[in-house]
Amino acid sequence: MSIAGRIASTVRADIRELTAYPVAHAEGCIKLDAMECPYELPEAVREDIARSVRDTPLNRYPAADLSALKGQIKTAFGVPDAADVLFGNGSDELIHLVVQACCNPGDTVLSPWPSFVYFDMAARFDHARFIGVPLTEDLALDLPAMLAAIREHQPKVVFLAVPNNPTGGLWPDEAILAIIAAAPGLVVLDEAYQPFAGSTWMPRVLDASNVVVMRTVSKIGLAGLRFGYLAGHPAWVAEFDKVRPPYNLDVLTQATLSAVLRHKAVLDEQAARLRADREPLAAALAQLPGVRVFPSAGNFVLARFSGKLDGNAVHLALKTRKILIRNFSNAHPLLANCLRISVGTPAENAALLSALQEILSA
Ligand code: PMP
């Protein structure tokens, strides 16, 4: 039998129809497409990492006892003492572990939509049913629709990205509380962009019996490391720990993280810089002809292009000029002609704005 025939009769049909998570080739480009931090770590931090990594034995599996790193994470990121944390190879892995642990085939995973695409993907991988509850035309949370969908579909897991990706919206506390109260299963508050938002659910993570908070270090300068953590009641964490692949957090990541956290102020300072640079970027984008900018609490802004050129054309014109941003024009009707732009360095932001001025006035 040919390989194609063997695959057709072996790999799940729904998997064969998927496309792999898209990652753009970025060599030589100004990279504003993935909400990375544009700043590299300072020399002193890199020296500390180098020492830490050099002294890490590679011949043994990672140790079973992660309590030292857990302590460091809890202190650095304000996790309540009584909560436990689970580590993931990026928070992508944690999303997957939660769905795996909670969902039988056909169970529902629910999220406002559009939101982070991996909520949907992880649900599909595990034969769960994904329900995306549409945002309003203004890309705000539709709380009545969320509550009605929760009543109707009784989801095992509700994912709430706060702030939301790709729209940037920060859902109001009262709406989050209402969703937590209505949800029959678990509510995962995905705070990937929390460092740019200024509010967090973390101190309240133990207040309700059905909440965990997920975070990542990807957006605050460490996207290359692949590290995320989930904080919650130790009983929830213990269940998710059962489906965690053995040794998912390698020793080099642990050593690097431990060294970087000795310089946590550097990460905070970088995040503060990006947060401060977001508003001038958003304001300058909003001045361009035919551009609507949606309010953002993340390190990115979503803009709709409805002038002479549509979203696809603007995206392509920027790509030709070696500026990469993320095109959502064809992703969902609510995102028609929408492009997502990560906040870069001041020089990168200026280059983007002058390219857009040129493109839109041509
Ligand atoms: N959650 C949200 C809302 C995200 O936007 C992303 C990254 N795009 C992630 C989680 C995944 O982050 P990580 O790099 O830790 O896998």
TrEMBL record:
Assigned EC number: 2.6.1.9
Cofactors that this protein relies on: pyridoxal 5'-phosphate
MF (Gene Ontology): histidinol-phosphate transaminase activity; pyridoxal phosphate binding
Origin: domain of life: Bacteria
Residues the record lists as N6-(pyridoxal phosphate)lysine modifications: 219
Recorded metabolic or biological pathway in which this protein acts: Amino-acid biosynthesis; L-histidine biosynthesis; L-histidine from 5-phospho-alpha-D-ribose 1-diphosphate: step 7/9
SUPFAM superfamilies membership: PLP-dependent transferases
Name assigned to this protein: Histidinol-phosphate aminotransferase
Species annotation: Achromobacter agilis
